[in-house]
């Protein structure tokens, strides 16, 4: 028999007065404040959402000890029956317990989980790292990467006998990067090079280094870029046609799918989209992108506008919530997380008979690739998507098979290795 273990780490007292949807909002904000990256937050919220869904199925809208116990019991049973792997079991355990810990304590400061925090430099190096990080006005994700590199480098210096930057120069930089290259993939080495360059620019400006070593730290790192699949226009039309727009669920799903396929919005931006973000007079949608913090103004296409109107007037529950997309069952609260949009996308794929997954981002990639295929330059595509770095948009070119064929070189005149023709 599976050795069930229950949640016995104290009763949920504080959280019993807080609605689960509000608790999830607070938890999402806490994860962001703690420095977790966008993708990591999505995974953690999705796993916590499994517990929340189990509560809702039981008719509970605040945390309940019996439901929590049942959740862990079911998770153990799934492991015992081989329905989930040990790795997946640990992930479910870890992230749900983290969520429950937040619910119990309300603690939002989780520095021990920040990227790079497991590297603890010597005191003087630590002070230097703190000033360096405070001097950079960057996003939380970027600061996490910078902390990881700075802490790791300073710990490495400490392990090699240095108490401060005295005597540290090009030789130490090269040896550190060589050690990193033995265990890191090219993408990580790119970050090592990039943030060491930032660090040494700071050290030089603060007279803590004799040089910024700009030339040494300007070498090119060839990074790996995954090429993700897209949906053809025919498949997108098939997906949209399969949605039953006579139902409230269908009206919401149709509006969501058009925002992804016609405007390229990310799932997190669809969840956060507010009624006030739509300028019906000017025919525009104004969005502050959750991932980058950058504003983007998109045209309110006729079909997108009609779908939004149909959902808002005929399917959206009456609510004072500013968000457009709400739950369709009580309590009528805004959708909890971007992962919910992925689930809507998956259901639409299943209805259309298309290979299903939760990657709503596929619609964004499909839109961008379609624009490139139709001859729109990559800079314009980047503006539409709200990408400030053109490198974020370039991978879509790799999916433009029609134009890539023009770049193919013929093999005429190239003799096979070893001699003449067969």
Give a short overview.
With 422 residues, this protein is mainly α. The protein has helices at residues 20-33, 38-57, 65-80, 86-105, 123-135, 140-159, 170-181, 186-205, 233-241, 248-261, 267-272, 302-314, 338-352, 361-373, 378-385, 401-404; strands at residues 278-279, 284-288, 295-299.
Please, could you describe this protein's structure?
This protein has 16 helices and three strands. It is mainly α and 422 residues long. The longest helix has 20 residues, at 38-57. It starts with 19 loop residues before the first helix and ends in an 18-residue tail after the last helix.
The low-confidence parts are 1-16, 108-114, 400-409
Within the largest sheet, what's the order of strands? 1-2-3
How much helicity do the residues have?
A: 40-55%
The dominant shape is globular
**Quantity of strands, as a count:** 3
Largest sheet composition: 3 strands, antiparallel
> What is the radius of gyration?
26 Å
What proportion of the residues form beta strands (DSSP E)? under 5%
Secondary structure tally, helices = 16
Instruction: Average the pLDDT over all residues and give the rounded result.
Output: 81
SSE class: mainly alpha
The N- and C-terminal alpha carbons lie at a distance of 67 Å
SSE series: HHHHHHHHHHHEEEHHHHH
Key phrases:
single chain, 422 residues, mainly alpha, three-stranded antiparallel sheet, 51% helix, 3% strand, globular, disordered N terminus
Present the secondary structure layout.
Layout (H helix, E strand, L loop, with lengths): L19 H14 L4 H20 L7 H16 L5 H20 L17 H13 L4 H20 L10 H12 L4 H20 L27 H9 L6 H14 L5 H6 L5 E2 L4 E5 L6 E5 L2 H13 L23 H15 L8 H13 L4 H8 L15 H4 L18
Antiparallel strand pairs: 1-2, 2-3
């Amino acid at each position: 028999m599976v050795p069930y273990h229950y949640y016995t780490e104290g009763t949920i007292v504080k959280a019993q007065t807080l609605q689960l949807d509000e608790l999830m909002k607070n938890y999402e904000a806490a994860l962001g404040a703690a420095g977790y990256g966008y993708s990591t937050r999505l995974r953690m919220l999705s796993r916590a959402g499994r517990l929340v869904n189990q509560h809702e199925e039981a008719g509970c809208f605040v945390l309940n000890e019996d439901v929590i116990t049942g959740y862990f019991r079911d998770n153990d049973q799934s492991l015992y029956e081989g329905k989930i792997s040990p790795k997946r079991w640990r992930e479910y355990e870890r992230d749900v317990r983290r969520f429950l810990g937040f619910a119990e304590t309300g603690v939002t400061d989780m520095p021990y989980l920040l990227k790079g925090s497991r590297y603890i430099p010597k005191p003087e190096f630590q002070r230097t790292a703190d000033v360096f990080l405070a001097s950079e006005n960057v996003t939380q994700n970027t600061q996490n990467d910078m902390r990881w590199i700075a802490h790791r480098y300073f710990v490495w210096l400490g392990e090699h006998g240095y108490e401060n930057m005295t005597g540290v120069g090009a030789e130490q930089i090269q040896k550190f990067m060589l050690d990193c290259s033995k265990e890191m993939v090219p993408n990580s080495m790119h970050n090592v090079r990039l943030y060491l360059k930032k660090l040494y620019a700071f050290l030089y400006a603060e007279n803590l280094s004799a040089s910024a070593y700009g030339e040494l730290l300007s070498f090119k790192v060839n990074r790996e870029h995954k090429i993700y699949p897209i949906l053809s226009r025919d498949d997108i039309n098939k997906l949209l046609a399969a949605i039953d727009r006579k139902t409230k669920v269908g009206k919401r799903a149709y509006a969501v799918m058009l925002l992804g396929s016609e405007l390229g919005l990310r799932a997190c931006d669809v969840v956060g989209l507010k009624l006030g973000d739509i300028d019906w007079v000017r025919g525009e949608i104004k969005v502050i992108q959750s991932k980058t913090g950058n504003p983007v103004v998109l045209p309110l296409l006729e079909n997108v506008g009609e779908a939004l109107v149909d959902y808002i007037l005929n399917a959206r529950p009456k609510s004072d919530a500013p968000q457009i997309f709400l739950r369709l069952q009580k309590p009528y609260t805004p959708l909890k997380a971007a992962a919910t949009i992925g689930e809507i996308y998956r259901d639409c794929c299943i209805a259309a008979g298309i290979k299903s997954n939760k990657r709503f981002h596929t619609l964004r990639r499909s839109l961008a690739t379609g624009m490139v295929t139709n001859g729109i330059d990559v800079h314009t595509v980047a503006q539409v998507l709200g990408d400030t770095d053109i490198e974020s948009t370039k991978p879509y070119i790799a999916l433009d098979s029609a134009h890539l064929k023009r770049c193919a070189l013929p093999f005429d005149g190239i003799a096979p290795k070893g001699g003449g023709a067969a």
